[in-house]
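If you are new to this repository, start here. Below is one unmodified record pulled from the training split, so you can see the exact layout before writing a loader.
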Amino acid sequence: MNFSGSYHGADVTFLLKPLPLADFVDDVAEKERLIQSGQRHYSEMLSPERPPSARYVAVFDEACRANGERMARDCLRLAQLVAQRRSGPVTVVSLARGGTPVGVLLKRLLERVHDRVATHYSVSIVRDRGIDANALRHILAQGHAPASIVFVDGWTGKGVIARELAASIERFNREHGTEIDSGLFVLSDLAGAAACAASCDDYLIPSSILNATVSGLVSRSVLAKALGPRDFHGCVLYSDFAAHDRSRDFVDDLERRALALCGQTDEAQAVDARLAASRSQAYVAAAMARYGVNDVNLVKPGIGEATRVLLRRAPRLLVLRDAQAPAVAHLRLLAEEKQVPVEIDPALPYQAVSLIRSASDA
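And here is the target side for that same chain:
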């Protein structure tokens, strides 16, 4: 099934298979135990989402006021970088769902600012499982040239997904005789792992705050047992959250901001990722030693990844560089609601880091 969620049909086609929610796991502690024990892969389980509270929506609105222009400017830069690196029509392939709002805006900016024909698909990629090969085959079957494909996400944390993308596209190219560029284009590359980024700064990308209600009412992707070998990866559609949905309003506002900025930005230059990569590797190693963490997957650097942990996982600790920084207000709120301890580290190279609780400590 191809659908656009709550976005306009021209904005995106989700290559995902909607599934019922009934079979998924609501107990976060149990889900964490199954993941860390190796009994289940995280992609096989999904916890039901709930509409955001009024307090949390207020934090999202404040994030849009504070950082909406910066995100719009970075999307404008990223669109220019894409236009520089691709000739002719562009096939934007966003990684669902963190990359979906960025992909929607990039498609619009490529069309309206750079006069390019652009098509946008949002597809699943799963750590240790790779990108959805059925979705890639579908895209190519629509006549899109392999060289036109650009993979897009919101940010990198440790670079795990960027490396997963590179490995799975290398495998896909080998099996299908294609030459798809596996480089990942992001707004903020904390890990120095992306092929192209507008920034390496850890700033609050507003769409990282909400879940389905800023991503077309679509859940994160899931590899459920109900999926067949020819199916796209699965998802849940939260159509009953329509009254809370901000997906269209969010990208419409970003587009207005970006178009107003046209001609006011310098020529876009890709950031040098080497410093970000060395900073990321040094911090993760130091954090594992400091907090006695044996699994690198339990350390989540950056505001975006810390937000995901507090929303979906079993957080052990939230580390903040500055507890009073407006960018981490939503993290303080979530930590308060979930009774997660908060540590302040003024030397932190990011605005926030979250540690996942080890199942052996539960």
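Two things worth knowing about this chain: The longest strand covers residues 149-156. The longest helix spans residues 54-85.
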